[in-house]
Design goal:
single chain, mainly alpha, MetI-like fold, about 0% strand, membrane, transport, MetI-like_sf
Length: about 280
């Protein structure tokens, strides 16, 4: 008995040590970036390097907030990510409910076709997308709104993945609940909105969060399809490398500014996200 307790205790200690080590490895780059953002250029290039800034300075943040990063790029990314994520969750919810509750000829083949779309590398779509953007005038200042175009591109790219996520949550909801709602006088649409959607809310929030983060971090399509003040934060950060050749404190300040909206969103939705992950683990 004593040996068994000692073994369990040693297992717990070793597990926590390993997890703590991985946590430190993951957190260290972010912490070092944060510390560097409060230095000036001379302090960044000091040898040997220092972890904490000798004097807390905001020069990097002042430069970032006075640049196009906060005047245009940040708001463009916020608009693109929000619009595309909401659109994806809305359309994916309707499609997922149809696949989950109705069986029609070709429904299984259609599901597999949607799954197959996830296997197509996004890089292969850039050339036709660029041609479409050019024909629609997206690349011209007086053309179609570039943010709406790139949001449509992100929506089309995120739909297959969101459909499969949300469908798994709809499948776990007993159909008897909807039948009871129909008996009580609800229409099918009312049963979906009042019964199914609230029960699947963790899955919807998880799909929204994953789509938002993926869109926020997207770089290649934004680099090819956007120009001028329509660019996103990832492209803006890339431009900083040519605008500020060795200004590491400006780069790191921009990284922290870019990271904050996603971090705030995750903090607000973390409860629903972890509920969705737990439900997925239990179903698995």
């Amino acid at each position: 008995m004593v040996t068994s307790k000692l073994t369990r205790r040693l297992d717990q200690i070793s597990t926590h040590l390993v997890l703590g080590l991985f946590a430190l490895i993951a957190i260290f780059p972010i912490t070092y970036t944060l510390m560097t953002s409060f230095k000036n250029q001379d302090e960044v290039l000091t040898r040997p390097p220092t972890f904490f800034p000798p004097t807390w300075r905001f020069d990097g943040y002042i430069t970032v907030f006075n640049s196009d990063m906060t005047r245009f790029y940040l708001w463009n990314s916020l608009f693109n990510s929000t619009v595309s994520s909401i659109t994806v969750v809305t359309l994916a919810s309707l499609a997922s409910y149809t696949f989950s509750r109705y069986r029609f000829r070709g429904s299984r083949a259609l599901e597999l076709a949607i799954l197959g779309l996830m296997m197509i590398p996004g890089l292969t779509n850039l050339v036709p997308l660029y041609r479409i953007a050019s024909d629609l005038g997206v690349l011209r200042p007086q053309g179609l709104n570039a943010n709406l175009f790139i949001s449509a591109v992100y929506t089309a790219g995120g739909l297959p993945f969101a459909i499969w996520i949300i469908k798994s949550f709809f499948d776990s909801i007993p159909i008897e609940l909807e039948e009871a709602a129909l008996i009580d006088g609800c229409t099918p649409v009312q049963a979906l909105i009042r019964v199914v959607i609230p029960l699947a809310a963790p899955g919807l929030m998880a799909a929204f969060l994953l789509m938002f983060v993926d869109t926020w971090n997207e770089f290649l399509a934004a680099l090819v399809l956007l120009n001028g003040t329509a660019r996103t934060v990832t492209v803006g950060l890339y431009d900083f490398q040519s605008s500020f050749e060795i200004a590491y404190h400006v780069w790191t300040a921009a990284c922290i500014v870019i990271m904050m909206p996603v971090l705030i969103l995750f903090v607000l939705l973390r409860k629903r996200f972890f509920e969705a992950m737990l439900q997925g683990a239990l179903k698995g």
